[in-house]
Amino acid sequence: MFGNKDIPTYLFTGFLESGKSTCIKDILEEGNFEDGKKTLYILTEEGEEEVAQDLLSYNKVSTVVVDDEEDFTEEKCLELYRQYKPARVVIEVNGMWDLDALVKETLPENWVVVQVFTTVNAETFQVYINNMKSLLMAHFQMADLVIFNRCNAQMDKASMRRNVKAINRQAQVLFESEDGSVESNIEESLPYDVNASEIVLEDDDFGLWYLDVSEHPEKYENKVITFKGQVYRNRTFPPDSFVPARAAMTCCADDIAKIGFICHYKDAPELATNDWVMVSVKVKPEFSRQSQSLYPVLWAESVTLAEPPKEEVVYFS
Question: Which of 32, 105, 269, 312 is 20 to 30 Å from 203 by CA-CA measure?
Answer without folding.
Answer: 269
